[in-house]
Amino acid sequence: MKIMTPHLGNTYLVTKAVFDTLGIDYIIPEFNSKKSLEIGSMYSPDDMCLPFKLMMGNYIQGIEQGADTIIITGSCGPCRYGEYCELQINTLKKLGHNLNFIVLDKPSEIGPKEFLNDKRLDSLEICSDRNPIKVAIIGEIYTIIEPFSNLFIEDKLMEYGVSTQRKLTPSWWAKNSIMSVVGMNSLDIRKASKEYLPLYIGGHARECIGEAVMAAHDGFDGAIQIFPMGCMPEIVCKAVLPSISKDKNFPILTLVVDEMTGEAGYITRIEAFLDLLERRKQKCII
Q: pLDDT by residue (tens digit) across 255-276?
């Protein structure tokens, strides 16, 4: 048995650490790129979203390296992600690949505790007079975690001197899944989203709405919603976010991504949005 997992941000490091410790044979597929997206798009239904196509690209490249078992996370309610494994299994079978799928959903316990912060951070020089633009990254969990699918937006914003925050992370997902068993998951997000989206509608739509409201209350200058073309829960969010923007006087930019997304136009929209936030910030200071 040779195990692989599709790429999702830096979770491949966790895969390597766990499987090395357990002595399990595994492979890490090539990082997401235009090549993996082209491969995944070739074998995916046309109307499937970007995460599905990137995962398929990972699988095909992993199979070429000898993988015969795939581990993925589980369902997100009515979102199509809950059916990914079945559709992917059937698609791979039609291509002549008979693999084993292991689906992880709401585990009863999580892995080792988080690493302690390195004490050497205290020796780093801090510029206390800096007051950068603060932007919250919200939206569909795969596209905001996996840097290739969002055109490395966090790196780009960092280069512009913008401070960002992204609440949805792999560790957040693990904690949220465990706490959901006793109904104690994401209490702050559920409270913040209650006025605009009181029910779960699949995916991480409620998290998107709650994070937008929380960012406005926490003094952020704006938020950027990112989601793949055709993602139903985030399409609903896109319709709700203008009301939050108007009620809270809080700018929100929506970016939709798929394999046809052009980087030039993408960057132009981000730069225009940052110009807006900078002007608003300067106006408040004056």
A: 999 988 888 889 999 999 999 9
